[in-house]
Amino acid sequence: MQIMGRESSHYLYGTAYIKGVIQMALPDYQQEDNKETGGRRKKKHSPALAVFLSILFAGLGQLYNRRYVKGICFLVIEAAFLVTMLQSINYGLWGLRTLGTIPGTDHSIRLLVFGVLSVIGIFFALALYIANVLDARNQARKIRNGWKPSSFRNTISAFYEYAFPYLMTFPGLLLMIFVVIFPLLFSVLLAFTNYNLYNSPPRNLVDWVGFDNFVNLVTVPLWQDTFLSVFSWTIVWTVVATTLQIALGLFLALIVNDPRIKFKKLIRTVLILPWAVPAFVTILIFSAMFNDDFGAINRDIIIPLIGGGGLPWLSDPFYARIAIILIQTWLGFPFIFALFTGVLQSISKDWYEAADVDGGSRLQKFRHITLPHVLFATAPLLIMQYAQNFNNFNIIYLFNEGGPPVRGQNAGGTDILISWVYKLTFDTNNYSMAAVISIIMGGIVSCFAFYQFRKTRSFKEEGEI
């Protein structure tokens, strides 16, 4: 009997504890009064019926659960959607499927835009509909288990408390949809059409061509040669130019940070000055300096040293590429120098003193102390430098507009992928091929950045350095 009494007391304590946990975990609900229910569960309330009603029409499940205000809100939203948006979405989906049927009347690109907007609208409507169904199911389950829905005032209070952050981020979400997601979807879909100068609406209709553009890029000799040439130069340009500016910035930061160097503030100010000048001004000045006929580089440096007529900086692809790499090194090293200077000053001197005690050389201290610390602190920014130069349109276009021309190709000798896309878009109006190349560019940069970020120690757990 004593054992049974202990078990009964343990059961009562456990029941009270569980009841308290439930009350804390579900503040929006309260249990039914025992006097009202007689200590028994409420009469059967079917979650399946609530789900069915919500699927039938948004808000009916909430009305079944006696959440009248919420149910009316869902009813009004779906009714407004059906009245105002259903016809527009049907038209947009028709346009997305056909891109028009009557030349001169149907504008294929506008139909494509309406179609993308319709898909986005359907996504939001579907998300709201799923939220409506899940809410009805969860409410019905709680009612079946004996919980009473909170009052309208408590619901508003809880909504304000828990949903306020989402309301604040909603404008940013809309901005992201129309500035990022919509253009991205439009560009991707454009790559599967034949939209070019000869199929421009409204006189002509644009058609879906599937993967023909991707196939042509690697099989048609003109496109294949141009793509391989531009792509290989883009990789070389990105790696060489970015690595040079990083190496020069690190070298100068190490030199200036040496304790034996005097006038450090003055030297740092002078080295950062190229960063203070607008990049487009610097590029235009260098473009004039590298001019084949009257540029200062040929007139004052090359001709006095080696004679002849100077080097063809703008008319020969090889020399034009060298010039662009040198200019980018000049433009990029001040930022790297300032970045590395701040990191070097944060390294504890005790590490170097301990290395001196152990007999470490300058090279060993650089390899095992300075370089790991610098890379750990700056790796994400260095990765972004490579990604930025991969799409560095300004220097390519401002220096010589991607020239000089190359025989047998529809891109210039210094064109990288981004400048080639610009020419395809605005010079030849070949929008579909420009979209194809843009997709390839985005995929390359995304994969590279994702892989490098995953491998970078800066994004791993602390304590690994």
TrEMBL record:
Q: State if Membrane is listed as a keyword.
A: yes
Outline the extent of the ABC transmembrane type-1 domain: 231-452
Lineage, top-rank taxon, reads Bacteria
Molecular functions per Gene Ontology:
ABC-type maltose transporter activity
Q: What is its main location?
A: membrane
Listed GO cellular component terms? maltose transport complex
Record GO biological process: maltodextrin transmembrane transport
Describe its function: Part of the ABC transporter complex MalEFGK involved in maltose/maltodextrin import. Probably responsible for the translocation of the substrate across the membrane.
Q: Mind telling me what this protein is named?
A: Maltose/maltodextrin transport system permease protein
Organism equals: Sediminibacillus halophilus
